[in-house]
Amino acid sequence: MSTRVQTQGRLINRDRPVSFKFNGALMKGYQGDTLASALLANDQMLMGRSFKYHRPRGVVASGSEEPNALVNLGEGNRFEPNQRATTTEIFHGLTATSQNHWPSLEYDVGVVNNLLSRFLSAGFYYKMFIHPRPFWKHIYEPFIRHSAGLGKAPDAEARDVDRYEHFYAFTDVLVIGGGVAGLQSALTAARAGAKVLLLEQTAHLGGRAPVDGGTIDGMSPEAWVEKARADLAAMPNAQIRTRTMGAGVYDHGYVLGYERLTDHAPEVAGPRHRLWRIRAAQIITATGAIERPLSFAGNDIPGVMLASAVRDYLVNYGVSPGDRTVVVTNNDDAYRTAIALVQAGLKVPAILDARPQGGGALMDEAKALGIRVETGAAAVKVKGAKRVHSVCRGVQAGEGEVLEEIFCDAVAMSGGWSPVVHLWSHCGGKLNWDADQAAFRPDHTRAPTSHDGQAFVIPSGAADGAFHLSDVLQNAVTAGQTAATRVGAKAGDAAAPAATAPDEAPLVPVWMMPQGAQKKLRMKAWLDYQNDVKVSDVQLAAQEGFESVEHTKRYTTLGMATDQGKLSNINGLATLAHALDAEIPQVGTTTFRPPYTPISMGAIAGEARGEIFQPIRKTPMHAWHEANGAHWEPVGHWRRPYAFPRKGESVHDAVNREVQATRKSLGLLDASTLGKIIVKGPDAGKFLDMLYTNMMSTLKPGKCRYGLMCTENGFLTDDGVVARIDEDTFLCHTTTGGADRIHAHMEEWLQTEWWDWKVWTVNATEQFAQVAVVGPNARKLLEKLGGMDVSKEALAFMEWKDGTLGGFPVRAYRISFSGELSYEIAVPANLGRAFWDKLVEAGKEWDITPYGTEALHIMRAEKGFIMIGDETDGTVIPQDLGLDWAISKKKEDYIGKRAQARSHMTDPKRWKLVGLETLDGSVLKDGAYAIAEGTNENGQTNTQGRVTSTYHSPTLNKGIAMGLVLNGPDRMGEVISFTNGDSPAAKARIVNPVFFDPEGEKQNV
Amino acid sequence: MSDVALALGGASFDGLVKIEELAGQGMVTLRGDLTDKAIVKAVKDVFGVALPDIRETAFSGSTGALWMSPDEALLLCSYDEAQAKADELAGKLADAHALVVNVSDARAVFQLKGSLLREVIAKLAPVDMSPDAFKPGMVRRTRMAQVAAAFWMDDASTARVVCFRSVGEYVFNLLSTAADTNASVGHYSS
Question: What does the pLDDT look like over A839-894, one tens digit per residue?
């Protein structure tokens, strides 16, 4: 059984017991434990069930590479699935449950899949469930979804209660990884004068060195690490962040760091995670290496662990995985585990070394401790169910004949080490296959390059394939120097600290154990624990023609899901290479993509939640609208009142009331959101002639003109009224959503095409509050306020004037989007609310009625005015809308002119704007299609038009609509049918789109 | 001017830094070639400051100028004087190619006070806020989270942030969230 031993445990504090719950059972650990070490200390080796076969699985690793020990962590609003027990620091009150089993971890019915495993081979889902087609949706998929899958989704009603934030940081040199290599690289670069930021994903610096031993500068690695930390802390140009993972490396030295602030201490207030958005001139990836499993039968039985993990649990947490541990290896490093176990008083019945010659100094040390070493040996299979029972020894060169059964309760395996090249590779760093170490290593001549073509990522230490302690430190110094010189600092000190560690004999690559294992053994030799991919699956995929490693990955699911194949990658592609009779470098690796391990959605969202999820733009009158019951409508980032329903009044009734009150007497609209762009310069007129389809340069100062803007492709993109302020200056109104976009459009043309034209623009939208005073009594209200002459003679339709009204400095425009007598009055934004209040107060005698966007829409539709976004959708040109009158024939050019001459744009069959009037007065459905004869080649009903705007008109008391119809303007009076949801088609007559006051008499008074 | 109707009515928050919505700030946008001698002289005459270099500020008492782009400056003065100064500057530049607009009402202005203002800003703006990269006398026209913003430092522990008026509440809430007492980063040595 696994248990806590009385010695060791450098990372735990035995004076601070911590209690937590796993699957409802109360357990005890110590401060500093990971969930995995604490579970092992409680003899909870079984931590989950596998994805496909529901095989019992225990923890196999001790770090972020762990594929098996994934748990549901927390409850309710803090519930998170797929959390790695190996990287979860325990805290008092932690609750975790195991995943992927039913009804319980111990007794799982899904294990039946295991018995059927011969039928669940590679590509099984593709082959088995494809026919008959309807079975997939109704039978196969529900079954698979029930039996497969990892953690549970959080409850639909749960809401993350934690806070998150971003932080932008800039540094010369970013070091990712705080092991001895990262620390040394950071020291070298910082001492050379570079600004250095070091990230370490765990809570502790030093990486593996304190566990693996040796000496640095005559000190224990642990002492050296502490000194390095203190030295860095004393330098003002160096920073260290623990519990912060370098998650991804992106173009031009952009790096995401994932800081976990309170995962280990949820009682601490403040953000839970912080996403570091880092710009680094140079990035040093000191990301270490990951040990590879060995592919022998039964290598997934709980109790089979990586040799390094066994050593970590013992040394770091004082936990033994078993009393009797057999070590299986192809290299010297695993001997360290055997030595550590024996020195802790535990038994190592044998070391099975696949190498015929065995190892070097470490083997001698093990033998001196009395440990039995078998060379040229193999673990033919591990026996056991929920726990290791024994190892069957054979010869590595053989096919699986069992020579001896060795009883044990744990197995420590090592297939060699793979440098963690993920971050090197994220942005395009290439790899070379190092046959001697049987590992992919960064190719320094093919590093990721930045905007200037220069390399910006430098691997350091084990991540660069340097494994001996002295090589690690020398490599790290070189990395630090390279980074320093590249950022313009001095080269710095080239001397690496003196390190001692035993010399190691070379490893022998072992991709299958024993090398000639029969099929029965291969079918129990797991490559990818998380996805239940076995050696036999990859071999089958190769046999079926999946030669590309990327295809094999997707066919077999090798290297997918939350661990992204950190353990399985190299073993899998070596197996594939072997099956294809190819060399490993020819097969290559799958693509390494960020993030290195999954990061939380909360960290990505950062501060953007609740009231700051998205900016909400508010006009100066927003608070009045809110206090007066506005029913809101989002328009761009603005919130505009849709209507102002009174107590007990429906929104629909409110809209009708607002329209009628405005048409009969007096309405008030907050028009502050409309864009107001000032365009000035000697070439301003020429510029606006290019921007608008109609002529603006001929507009007289003091006058207004409605204009249309198109894109280069001729499509209508915005509209609004232009006022000429003086000879050189225009004010262009845009739509509410268009202000920023149109301002950018103007600047783009001025900066890229017409850079020599003398034109300046300023977006002054927010400088002014703007109020539309609308209705037959509009002038009376303004006259009551007094201060300027607003008579027809002094301020005619489509004119503007500066003056004062009721003591407010104003610019009044006589423009109308409703067809009524109407003034739009601009005042400085800070006076907007006071001016609005004054109008509301003074307008009482005419029953002044503030109205919202829906009343605005209805009144413009009654007048047949188009609305950008309703009548236009990015495919409509002004000619479609009968706006030919607003397209200058005299101008040589305007943006969109040439596009509008294309054959498709001049096609007489383009649908054109008409009014639509239902025969029974009902309202057509928005977006409804006009039905034509027959069906198309897909058997769908043919169409001949569609509805673009549709309303109930309170003024006319019937449904009115606008729509684009084939040959529409030539078919006045014709009745056509429209789709009507599930109801029978609706009949409507084609009419003039101007339903109300076609002569425009009401607005021009 | 105390009776200006501010976007937030003078909101404040006390956390890692003290955040206050400032009373009306006169602001005049100048579009023009900032190296044009006539423009430089006119600004000097009206606002009493030389036009600043790239990403820098120039102040003289209550007036000042912020570099916004090679052809745009934001000129500062008291709220009450803004329209008159804008008119005066426009008058002096009648023969030059320039556009002068009073934008005093278009923006909300916040003051951040406290030694941790660098990290509060660095949570929201993609700007190097380290003391060697950003110091008093500099300005950044950038964004804060999802909206445009600009800021400068008046001294080592005081910064001013401007944003558009309509998003004043959003920016105030952003700054307050970033300045949560429990959310200190501890990244900058000073």
Answer: 999 999 999 999 999 999 999 999 999 999 999 999 999 999 999 999 999 999 99
Check if B29 contacts A (Cβ < 8 Å).
yes
Three-state SS letters, B100-168: EEECCCCEEEEEEECCCHHHHHHCCCCCCCCCCCCCCCEEEEEEECCEEEEEEEEECCEEEEEEEHHHH
pLDDT in tens, A907-916: 999 999 999 9
pLDDT band, very low/low/confident/very high, at B189 (cuts 50, 70, 90)? confident
| Structure-block tokens of residue A642 | 């849709």
Which of A164, A168, A268 to mutate against chain B (most B CBs within 10 Å)?
A168
- pLDDT tens-digit series, residues A483-513: 999 999 988 788 999 999 999 999 999 999 9
Domain count, chain A: 7
- Give the closest-approach CA distance of A927 to chain B in angstroms: 33
Length reported for chain A = 1005
Q: Report the pLDDT averaged over residues A674-699.
A: 97
* Nearest residue of chain A to residue B177 (CA atoms): A607
Q: For A369, which DSSP code? A: T
A612:B173 CB<8 A: yes
CA B6 to chain A, closest CA, distance in angstroms equals 6
Q: Is B147 on the interface with A (CB under 8 A)?
A: yes
Is the Cα dihedral A880, A884, A887, A892 positive or negative? positive
Tell me the residue range of the domain where A183 lies.
164-290+419-493
- Tell whether omega for the bond before A514 is within 30 degrees of 0, i.e. cis: yes
Residues whose CB falls within 8 Å of the CB of residue A138, separated by 6 or more in sequence, listed in order: none
Interface confidence: ipTM more than 0.90? yes
Among A392, A415, A438, the domain-final residue is: A415
CATH 3.30.1360.120 fits B14-23+106-178, yes or no: yes
The per-residue pLDDT for range A592-613, each reduced to its tens digit, is 999 999 999 999 999 999 999 9
CA separation, residue A690 to residues A321, A452, A891, A937, B23 (Å): 78, 38, 9, 43, 41
For residue A945, tell me if it sits in a domain.
Answer: yes
Residues of B in contact with A680 (CB under 8 A): 31, 99
Q: For residue A799, give the DSSP letter.
A: B
Please identify, among A415, A450, A478, the residue that sits at the C-terminal boundary of a domain.
A415
**In this complex, is the C-beta atom of B143 within 8 Å of any C-beta atom belonging to chain A?**
no
Chain A, nearest residue to B7 by Cα: A620
Q: How far is CA A15 from CA A31, A32, A42, A206, B164, in A?
A: 8, 11, 17, 23, 56
Residue type, B183: A
Q: Sign of dihedral through CA atoms A366, A371, A373, A378?
A: negative
pLDDT band at A136 (very low <50, low <70, confident <90, very high): low
Q: What is the largest CA-CA distance in chain B?
A: 56
Give residue A317's pLDDT band: very low, low, confident or very high (50, 70, 90): very high
The residues facing B152 across adjacent strands are B139, B160
> Could you give the CA distance from residue B35 to residue A158 in angstroms, rounded to a whole number?
58
Q: State phi, psi for A428 to the nearest 5 degrees.
A: 110, 5
Q: What is B25-102's CATH topology?
A: Alpha-Beta Plaits (3.30.70)
Lowest mean pLDDT among A43-47, A363-367, B72-76: A43-47
Residues A562 and A529 in one domain: yes
Same domain, yes or no, for A284 and A426? Answer: yes
Q: What is the pLDDT of residue B2?
A: 43
Distance from B55 to chain A by nearest Cα, in Å?
18
Roughly how many angstroms between the first and final C-alpha of chain A, as a whole number?
96
Residue A675: in which H helix or E strand, if any?
strand A675-680
pLDDT band at A562 (very low <50, low <70, confident <90, very high): confident
* Structure confidence by residue, pLDDT tens digits, A628-669: 999 999 999 999 999 999 999 999 999 999 999 999 999 999
Token pair listed for A560: 């997918």
**Cβ-based contacts of A828 with chain B (< 8 Å):** 104-105
